């Protein structure tokens, strides 16, 4: 994939401001697209859009295919008659500065589940036909398995599927038939939520595209054990007879972690996937491309070789490298789907074999400026060492904000950064915009800035701390924080370095998207 020279912003939609405790696919989201247009940004990068599970992480979801129902626009459902206006008027007061996921879920999920009952009794024929068509298109691939999984999960009070009755864990046909009939209304309610998510998000994506903005999404390499994917496709994962993983994912010990990182996700049985023509992966990417225009493949190096740790280990030390599917997977994807626009997350210790796999398919890699100043001029993250076919970031969702990073960086790293940028005075307050300008001026085809850096925020605005199990993913963009001055500065940066968006015929202030 060849990227055009461009710029964009990283903001997960849960971080958008709004009344109901979490960002939604509503007027605020459309105004966000308008902001991108005004700022001459042509890419909106988001994190995985799936329904989050433990820890509220978009990288640990209940499905690799489904959308997050918490993003559904409740006001629109009320306008359509599926949610009572009084319920929205009586909504709790949620914090504006962060997403408090527990209370949001407790309040919003019953409204979403109940909306289907109203839809089932009062939807007009055209809307009912559209819902039935959506189900027919997706049921056999992922939708029915996901809705059944979620209905069972609700019935068992959120317990992981590994604790369900044995006949359900093993998906015995008689049990599936009995429970499928018993939970039929709940199954349909979860399908309805997915219909609403795909409809609303699809309309937002179309609006963005019509205004010259592409959406860059994210595909985590692994899926959660407690997911519809593993429950419904147990033959694709190394599990014991009770459905528990026999080996799990992680990364080996390195300079930053003497015991490595034990992620705990089940690995894939790549031999079985190969025998099936990698069909599960093809469908996963196909459905993701319903939601986004480009995809970042997280932990790209795991496709070449991955760190396998026996289940039950307390650290990742006692693992081993195992060869992944390599080129065969990507050949299958491109053969089935055409020139899939993939960006390779190739951060960390990358081997020549990983680079060869990336380059064989012309995939852009990633550069993080916060990683650039720890040693000398040979550092591959310094802009003078870039190739054009890459994406440069000041930092990613896993990094501190740039202002927070610079404030806590060792003095030699700060000094090298200032010397490289030509600063004689302290960068403490200017670090974010200085690195944004450095990124914009580089030869990298695409430059992406987290919105926290546009606002020059400190560590309090960090999105994720990888070593921290709870309290992540909660940051929210304050309403009207991107004022006219910041938008003008972003536009000036894009125009100065040849990254400005192509003007469109549409009016950026027009919110009539129905």
Explain what you see.
The chain contains 19 helices and twelve strands. Helix 4 crosses helix 8, helix 5 packs across helix 8 and helix 11 crosses helix 13. With 514 residues, it is of the alpha/beta class. The strands form two sheets. Strands 9-6-3-2-1-12-11-10 form an eight-stranded parallel sheet. It has a four-stranded antiparallel sheet with strand order 5-4-7-8. Strand 1, helix 1 and strand 2 form a beta-alpha-beta unit.
Strand order of the largest sheet: 9-6-3-2-1-12-11-10
Distance between the termini: 33 Å
Describe the main β-sheet briefly: 8 strands, parallel
Mean pLDDT: 95
**Helical percent range?**
40-55%
Radius of gyration: 23 Å
Shape: globular
List the total number of helices: 19
Overall structural class, as computed from helix and strand content, comes to alpha/beta
Beta content: 5-15%
Q: What's the helix and strand layout?
A:
Blueprint: E1 6-10, H1 27-38, E2 43-45, H2 74-79, H3 85-89, H4 101-122, H5 125-155, H6 166-169, H7 173-182, H8 184-210, E3 214-219, H9 228-232, E4 247-251, E5 261-266, H10 270-275, H11 279-291, E6 294-297, H12 301-304, E7 305-310, E8 320-323, H13 327-337, E9 342-344, H14 352-360, E10 365-368, E11 390-393, H15 402-408, H16 411-421, H17 431-441, E12 446-450, H18 451-454, H19 484-496
Parallel strand pairs: 1-2, 1-12, 2-3, 3-6, 6-9, 10-11, 11-12
Antiparallel strand pairs: 4-5, 4-7, 7-8
